[in-house]
Specification:
single chain; alpha/beta; five-stranded mixed β-barrel
């Protein structure tokens, strides 16, 4: 998917967020905003930094996220999807306030053994779904640029993110999850609840997909504390700054001459 020009300015970019707070600032800056209700969800169409976009919230969990992603593609003709959200850290080098750009995704709660190896998605022959190389590189660059200023104390990482329909919030649970993943050859940076489902939908449709997660906690026993405040005060500001820089970059034709 990374060969040849993969993005044309006339395409509509879908900006998907796990939580409402992450999109409020972006919606406020929409040019020619149009509010559309469909399938019990609210979608915002318009332009940001000269690009056609559609914004919506995935809701929490893999089923909701997959359904929302499919709707963005089939109902709103999205040409690519960028996902913003928060996550718990799994790797020692990832700290609260850092950003993780996904290289690929895996469902940590998928287990069809002994019929298939643990984590492997039946009919696909693999456990991990790789994000689009060029779009992910653009997202990582946007994150590095955004964090170099006001958020200079934070770091940007790139690697495996795992998803599951459970809010991981205990030190014992984190340790057991890390051990299971490592035994299967998967070293994950962060854990959340939606990204792998969207990655699978985008793979089915051959659609470019990239995702970033702001690390809100260490996925331990204190993960639930001040979560709403972190999303409002930190993650939402990260999302707005990073997505804005990404859109500015995507609007530069020189980036896509490959």
């Amino acid at each position: 998917m990374s060969a040849g020009p993969w993005w044309q300015a006339g395409q509509r970019l879908a900006i998907l967020s796990a939580l409402v707070d992450e999109q409020r600032g972006l919606i406020d800056h929409l040019e020619q905003p149009e509010r559309v209700e469909h399938a019990g969800r609210i979608f915002w169409l318009g332009r940001l930094h000269g690009l056609a976009v559609v914004l919506t919230v995935s809701r929490i969990g893999k089923v909701s996220a997959a359904m929302t992603a499919a709707t963005l593609i089939e109902r709103f003709d999205a040409g690519a999807i960028v996902f913003t959200g928060v996550a718990g850290a799994l790797a020692d080098q990832v700290q609260v306030g850092d950003v993780v750009v996904a290289q690929d995704f895996l469902q940590h709660d998928l287990d069809v053994s002994p019929l298939f190896p643990r984590y492997e998605v039946p009919a696909y022959g693999r456990a991990r779904f790789v994000c689009h190389e060029d779009l992910s590189a653009a997202l990582r660059q946007a994150a590095q640029q955004a964090l170099a200023g006001e958020f200079a104390q934070a770091s940007v990482h790139q690697g495996l993110i795992v998803s599951g329909d459970r809010f991981v919030s205990g030190a014992g649970e984190v340790g057991a999850l890390r051990q299971r993943l490592q035994q299967a050859g998967h070293a994950a940076l962060a854990v959340e609840m939606e990204g792998a489902a969207v990655a699978q939908v985008c793979a089915d449709h051959g659609l470019p997909y990239a995702a970033m997660r702001t690390v809100s906690d260490r996925a331990d026993d204190s993960a639930h504390r001040d979560f709403a405040e972190f999303v409002s005060q930190v993650a939402s500001r990260y999302a707005q700054a990073i997505v804005s820089r990404l859109l500015i970059g995507l609007g530069d034709p020189a980036r896509h001459r490959r």
